[in-house]
Amino acid sequence: MTSPKQQQSANLVSDGDLRYANLDERKRKRMISNRESARRSRAKKQQRLDELLGEINKLQSDNNAIMKKIDGATQMFVGAESQNNVLRAQLTELTDRLHSLNSVLHIAQEVSGLAMDIPEIPDTLLEPWKLPCSVQPITTSFNMNMF
Predict the structure, then answer these.
(1) What is the mean pLDDT of the segment spanning 4-9?
(2) Distance between CA atoms of 64 and 77, rounded to whole angstroms?
(3) What end-to-end distance do the CA atoms of the chain give, in Å?
(4) Cα-atom radius of gyration of the chain, to the nearest Å?
(5) Which residues contact 105 (CB under 8 A, 6 or more apart)?
């Protein structure tokens, strides 16, 4: 039979095996838990990446739409500016014609000796920025949908 000392050492070995078994079981559970946590973390990271990619696409399409509106507004501005230049040139030409016609009328009046009613050219015609106009406040808004 076994001596009490051998029995005690056998008990220690089996107690140690149980401790190691429990330790191995805890280690295995912790490893599984860590893997699951890492999987959840990767899934969360991928979801956030997908959200950011969607936001990038949305912002790029918004940016493109705004750029189209800016291009449209720029084209309208260039068109209005060129039309203003044409109108200024026409104003200058018509003012010169009016001066010439008034000169002809003054010469005709002097030569004929007849009194003619020759209207003077108003200064406001020569300086269009002095033309009377109603004073209206200029209002602005950030409504980009008007184009």
Answers:
(1) 52
(2) 20
(3) 104
(4) 47
(5) 116, 118
Smallest Cα–Cα separation from 125: which of 98, 85, 86?
98
pLDDT score recorded for residue 7: 54
Query: 3-state DSSP helix/strand/coil percent for the chain, to nearest 5?
Result: 80, 0, 20
Contact 131, 124 (CB under 8 A): yes
Helices (H), 113-139: 123-126
Residue type, 73: A
Residues in the chain: 147
What one-character-per-residue DSSP string does 53-111 give?
Answer: HHHHHHHHHHHHHHHHHHHHHHHHHHHHHHHHHHHHHHHHHHHHHHHHHHHHHHHHHHH
pLDDT tens, position by position, 47-105 = 999 999 999 999 999 999 999 999 999 999 999 999 999 988 898 898 889 888 888 88
Q: Residue holding tokens 């838990």?
A: 33
pTM beyond cutoff 0.90: no
The conformational region for residue 118 under phi > 0 = left, psi -120 to 50 = alpha, else beta, is beta
